[in-house]
Amino acid sequence: MFTKSEPVGLLVRLALSGFALALLVCSSVAAGDGQMRTVTLAPHLTELVYEIGAQDHLVGVVEWSNWPEEAKALPRIGSAFRFDMEAILSLEAELALAWSGGTPAAVGQQLEKLGIEVLWLQTRSLDEIAEAVELLGQRLETARPAREIADRFRNKTERLRERYKDNPPASIFYQVSAQPLFTLGGRHVISEVFRTCGAHNIFDDLDTEAAAVDREAVIDRQPDFIIAGTSDESAAALAKWEESRLVDRERTRLVAVDADLLVRPNLRIIEGIEFICELVTETAN
After folding, report:
1. Which distant-in-sequence residues (6+ apart) come within 8 Å of 62 by Cβ?
2. Which of 26, 69, 120, 242 is packed most tightly, with the most Cβ within 10 A?
3. 3 state SS of 210
């Protein structure tokens, strides 16, 4: 026998059960729409996702994810080496795109313990950039267009190799930062970028992505070019080389470039290759 309040309570419970069922149905539909909630752990991986047309999967990105313009509006989950796990969890991320050689292994392990899948992508060579594009396409449901994009990228790089294979040899020092003086080593794709143009990275013998070097070591290797990635300090960095009087300006040319086109291993690196190749060719002539 019901009391006066029991019918009301029963109706409320039935209504709540119906609402819960509706939520379950909605979440099932959302889970089956192919949109894997994804975060990127490096700026160049953000770019690759956009380049294959899979940006609808993105729910969070790292700082310096500034291309294309739309990426600037996405929630931030930390920097390239310090990640906000609470932010990642709050975004209900299911997949994290990590950079082999850049993202700390401990970060990947921590994400996996939190139940988030980690996809490691290696981009130390131009071929590996194309492979990363294809792998992303397979994982983010854009396999066919990603494969076509990767093939076009391979064809462009091969044409550039062929076009500039007879360039006279040139040596390049690439400056990441001035204080401390940082450069990129043999593991970084920039060494292959230079080789494509008939040039070589004077520190490609360093078995690392990046390393601190001293100014005297640069001078000892007598580079034909000192190239500084553009940033707030780029003009000052080149001015310091001029003021140091350690550089023979008749031999060594100082150049500032858009760092994103050379340092970030993504499809826009083609523009960086073309810039370097033209630079080497013009100087030789």
Report:
1. 40, 41, 42, 43, 46, 76, 77, 78, 79, 80, 83
2. 120
3. strand
Q: Token pair for residue 146? A: 């990603």
- Residues written for the chain: 285
At 234, the pLDDT band (50, 70, 90 cuts) reads low
Q: Is 65 exposed, middle or buried (0-12, 13-18, 19+ CB in 10 A)?
A: buried
In angstroms, rounded to a whole number, what is the distance separating the alpha carbons of residues 181 and 251?
21
Q: Which domains does the chain have, with CATH numbers?
A: 38-159 (3.40.50.1980), 166-284 (3.40.50.1980)
Averaged pLDDT for residues 158-181: 93
DSSP code of 167? P
What number of helices (H) and strands (E) belong to the chain?
Answer: 11, 10
**What is the model's pLDDT at position 88?**
97
Whole-model pTM? 0.84
> Rounded to an integer, what distance in angstroms lies between the CA atom of residue 120 and that of residue 132?
9
Beta 38-40 vs 58-60: how paired, if at all?
parallel
The structure tokens 């003009």 sit at: 235
Q: Please tell me whether residue 114 adopts helix, strand or coil conformation.
A: coil
Place of tokens 């539909």: 29
Burial class, 122, CB count within 10 angstroms (exposed 0-12 / middle 13-18 / buried 19+)? middle
* Contact status, residue 120 vs residue 111, Cβ threshold 8 Å: no
pLDDT at 34: 60
Q: How far apart are CA 61 and CA 48, in angstroms?
A: 12
